[in-house]
Amino acid sequence: MRPSDLTLTAAAKAIRDRELSPVELVDSVLSRVAEVEPRLGAYATVTADRARAAAIRAADEIAAGTYRGPLHGIPYAIKDLIDVAGLPTTASSRVRADHVATTDSTVAKRLDAAGTALIGKTHTHEFAYGFITPQTTNAVDPSRIAGGSSGGSAVAVASGTAVFALGTDTGGSIRVPAALNGVVGLKPTYDLVPRDGVVPLSWSLDHVGPITRTVADVALVLPALTGRDEPALSSDITGLRIGIPRNHYFDRVHPDVSAAVHAAITRLESLGARLVDVEIPMTRYVLPINWAVMGPEATAYHEQTLRSTPELYTPEIRLLLEAGQLIPATDYIRALRAQTLMRQEWLRVLETVDIIAAPTTPVTAIPVDQQEVPWPDGVTETVSVTYVRLSSPANITGLPALSVPVGQDSAGLPIGMQLIGRPFAEAVVLSAGHAYELST
Question: I need a surface site. Which of 4, 37, 376, 395 has the fewest CB within 10 A?
């Protein structure tokens, strides 16, 4: 096994015990970047010199007896929506081709203080407004989509070109690519992780969070992002009440996905969890709320450049931003009110259960040229609708949601299970995912 193959937990232990040098780890990861990046396209910018300098600094500090914690000397990637001083923040768009950040985002500053080594900035769907990330190919099958909008970050972790990565999630953009590439992704509680210095898509729905190889790895990254204590992981979930949706989450879901998620839920039950059927509230309003909030907020952010340099946007994103101008202010206000009502209704459901378990996506990674998803009942969905409808409720409600790999479909493509919890109950959500992970 190469150092680049290690989980964060294993790499951190090896560095702490001085069995592995940060320089060895960073060199191994950069070697992996050189090997696979030409075909995967995960990175917008690779910062090899910066990473090596950080690794040397970390090695010297550890040798002198200064160990900053589990992220010390760990190579990571950051989505190219998030400012790092001195580096471009392009949002994978020609609109920001000449932009260079002058200051660090809060999360970049905190990770730097933890002693990390930045490998580079990863591609996003332009301005995070999509679920494909067309510049990047799936880490398992290059003929399939990476997922988005944090596709570059998920592929970097899945391919060994980063030990962990940061993404953003407005309608599923951490969890969807994590599920499609067979890694773990956490969308934390709304505002738990600061968004200062992050290019917004929708202020009301945006979240920043980690993508890792294991749930235990997430628990190591999260404290550095939040400034809070590390979540206490437990593998004992005896008595944990898991809500199994009777509606919405298993509607129009591929049989392979449904079977894998149900099998994972059964595994959780065998570990001592108690299964409880639940009714998901206000499901007919999920997509209308998502669009009526996100559309106007995205357009408001882009208002000036949409007027001055509209030709620099891709046709897809320009159309979405122009469509956002057509939503009346009254509809936007109604959507915000409906968002509040949906949050209240979800909290009532979560008084009866501790977490809700469901598929992360209805299908696995589709071919790169596929435009629509047909279903046996005659309904045909756009790709965006297919990938957003199971993930966006957690954005609308602001609840923590974790995607964990739970197997593969008949084509060998990864499947993800989503665990959704109460506000600021990341420890409960992560413990459930950790217990499942250990059992498999």
Answer: 376
Tell me the pTM. Answer: 0.98
Residue 334 belongs to domain spanning: 241-285+328-439
How far apart, in whole angstroms, are the C-alpha atoms of residue 111 and residue 117? Answer: 9
Where does the pLDDT of residue 141 fall: very low under 50, low under 70, confident under 90, or very high at 90 and above? very high
pLDDT of residue 229: 86
Same-domain pairing of 219 and 281: no
What is the domain count for the chain?
A: 2
Q: Would you name the residues annotated as active-site residues?
A: 79, 149, 173
Q: Which CATH number covers residue 155?
A: 3.90.1300.10
